[in-house]
Design goal:
By secondary structure, this protein is an all-alpha fold. 53% of the residues lie in helices and 0% in strands. GO terms for molecular function: heme binding; lactoperoxidase activity; metal ion binding.
Length: 104
């Protein structure tokens, strides 16, 4: 559930037209954990992200990252290293799918 004041603010922003912008959090140009704080205040911009806090299975992760920026940084770093080890197929070895749910 989204905070009602935030929902009202988003409606006003969206009414401004195609050039309107809404940052994910107040520190839009800084890499930090404030994004997780917005979720715990029910002011997550995307429904899918806000669900991370709404769902009891993932709420503790959101709270952990919101209260412990060092933990967020460490987990993020480890995830980036893990992703860097993926065997990405390039050139003729791989394909760009026209529809992500099926092979071309």
């Amino acid at each position: 559930m989204m905070d009602t004041n935030f929902a009202t603010s988003l409606s006003k922003t969206c009414a401004a037209g195609d050039k309107a912008e809404q940052p994910f959090d107040m520190t839009r140009n800084t890499f930090d954990n404030l994004y997780y704080n917005t979720l715990s205040r029910k002011t997550g911009l995307l429904f899918s992200d806000q669900t991370l806090y709404s769902n009891p299975k993932t709420r503790n992760v959101v709270n952990g990252y919101a209260f412990n920026q060092a933990m967020f940084f460490l987990d993020f770093q480890q995830a980036m290293v893990k992703m860097g080890r993926l065997d990405v197929k390039e050139g003729s070895q791989g394909e760009v799918r026209q529809n992500c749910r099926k092979l071309n």
